[in-house]
Specification:
This protein is an alpha+beta fold. Helices cover 37% and strands 20% of the residues. The protein folds into 2 domains: 6-46, Orthogonal Bundle (Arc Repressor Mutant, subunit A); 66-140, 2-Layer Sandwich (Alpha-Beta Plaits).
Amino acid sequence: MMKEDKINARILRELTRDGRLPNTELADRVGLSPSACLRRVQELERLGVIRGYRAVLDPVAMGIGFVAYVTVGLSGHTKAAQEAFERAVSRFGEVRECHNITGTVEYLLRVEAADLAAYKLFHTDKLGTLPEVHQIVTHVVMGSPKDERA
């Protein structure tokens, strides 16, 4: 576990904004020497605070014009039903995130598709055919004024 530290917080903020930031520039931004900065970054990686680095993709450039959050209620509240559902959605390329949540339904999915017609096929031919699924509610994303996922 990472101890609370203002410099580490600044390092993490800068790397969240740009994971490809050269160490020398990162060090300059957080007020450390390059060697001290590199040691801190390596320690954050070793502790698992930094789990990896990713490319942020432009959905439009990739042909994704439809994004929705989908809540899914299962017909059974068993471990077997949850595991079967999770195995199935892990194979669906349209599902970019799957979260087991509390409340009136069991799952929240982030789904990306080329357009509404492609989403309808996913909804009907994939998600809707799973025997564990009892309820599907789709929330269409109309815009994302703040999105800090990397």
